[in-house]
Amino acid sequence: MLRLQGWRARVTMSAGFTVIAAFLFLPIIWMMLTSIKPQGEVFVRIPSLWPKAATLENYRELFSRGDMVEHLRNSLITAGGGALLTVVLATYAAYSFAKFRYRGRKPLMMLMLSAQMFPFAMLLISLYPMLQALGLLNTRFGLILAYIILALPSGTYMLYSFFVNIPTEIIEAARVDGAGELYILHRIVLPLAMPALVTVGLYSFMWAWNDLLFSLTLITSPELRTVGPGLLLSYMGEGSSDWSGAMAASIVSSLPVVIGFAFLQRFFIQGLTAGAVKS
Fold it and tell me: Which 8-state DSSP code applies to residue 36?
């Protein structure tokens, strides 16, 4: 345990933590205060931190326009669907890599992980004509497939790190008792792997929820836009930008991820650290 000797060390440490906290939380505080400012207080030469005439008009306009609710619904469908399917596919792939021995197992896993080496823009160039040939451009299902392709390699590796540390003796004992492989996976392994499953699901959901590049490129219909393109195209323009409305919309759109992480952070941390120490 770190022990600070002397008042100078304690003051230095406290000052360091204060600077780090200010660096992390000042943008969030600025965003929250800007969301309750009228437009006249935003576009000034020297903006003030605290609003002189605080208002909730930006939040009222946000929901009265109606498109924000539609964007949130589309993001919930695509991000939630992508996260759910990623967890399912990554579970079977990781369990196969961790507990079965067959020819080509390691090269196949390395090939899957190699997809993380390429920039997302390069993957998009390859993915776009595939979805176009399948008729899945400008569809929610096409966007869900894109999210799965991007999150599956890292999700598989996270679950592999967890499954490989589950004692093989438990699985062998179940096989001796006559249990099938699917029964072992679903009734024995998955309950033990719940923190890792939550970690992969939450990681995939947050990545898809914050996505802009893929959703902006693969979705063109206004009624199918997700949160990222919706905020960009609704509040940012060449001639003028509604920064107060954009900050209000950003706060509302971040609430699902913040609330989900607040409830699941215990499982998330357990899942991230489970594969770090070999049992």
Answer: T
- 203: in domain: yes
- 211 CB-side CA count, 13 A: 32
Q: Looking at the predicted structure, is the pLDDT value of residue 239 above 70? A: no
> What stretches of 1-66 show up as alpha helix (H) in DSSP?
7-34, 39-42, 57-65
What is the residue whose two structure tokens read 């304690």?
Answer: 10
**Residue 48 maps to a domain:** no
Q: Is the pLDDT at 127 greater than 80, yes or no?
A: yes
The answer to whether the predicted template modeling score (pTM) of the entire model surpasses 0.85 is no
Residue whose tokens read 């600025």: 30
Cα–Cα distance list, 246 to 31, 35, 84, 237, 258 (Å)? 9, 8, 29, 12, 18
The answer as to whether 5 is a domain residue is no
Distance CA 231, CA 41 (A): 21
Please state the rounded mean pLDDT for residues 152-157.
92
DSSP-assigned letter for residue 103? T
CATH of the domain at 87: 1.10.3720.10
The structural domain count of the chain equals 1
Q: Under a CB-based contact definition with an 8 Å cutoff, are residues 230 and 14 in contact?
A: no
**What is the Cα 64 distance to its own chain's centre?**
28
* Residue 80 included in any domain: yes
Category of 103 on φ-ψ map: left (φ > 0), alpha (ψ -120 to 50) or beta: beta
In tens, the pLDDT along 115-126 reads 788 888 888 998
What is the domain extent for residue 230?
60-274
Give the per-residue SS3 of 238-255. CCCCCHHHHHHHHHHHHH
Q: How far apart are CA 173 and CA 185, in angstroms?
A: 13
The tokens describing 93, both together, are 């792939």
